[in-house]
Amino acid sequence: MTEQPNPKDHPTGNAEKDPDDWTTGGEAMTGAQASYLKTLSEEAGEAFDDTLTKADASKRIDELQAKTGRGQ
Prior knowledge:
Blueprint (H helix, E strand, L loop, with lengths): L10 H5 L15 H14 L9 H15 L4
Helix pairs in contact: 2-3
């Protein structure tokens, strides 16, 4: 029997999962995501979309972080 790797042994690898592969990615974004996304949107001078899913919000956060220089 092959032993399964423990995800806690490589926590950063587990954190790098593509948002498109998240099992809860289709759910509404979290309050923390919405708050941060609103801040980033204001800093970037772009509209805030409060209808994004968790996965889409994550991608948008990445885009706006790149645009604003935050999160680098």
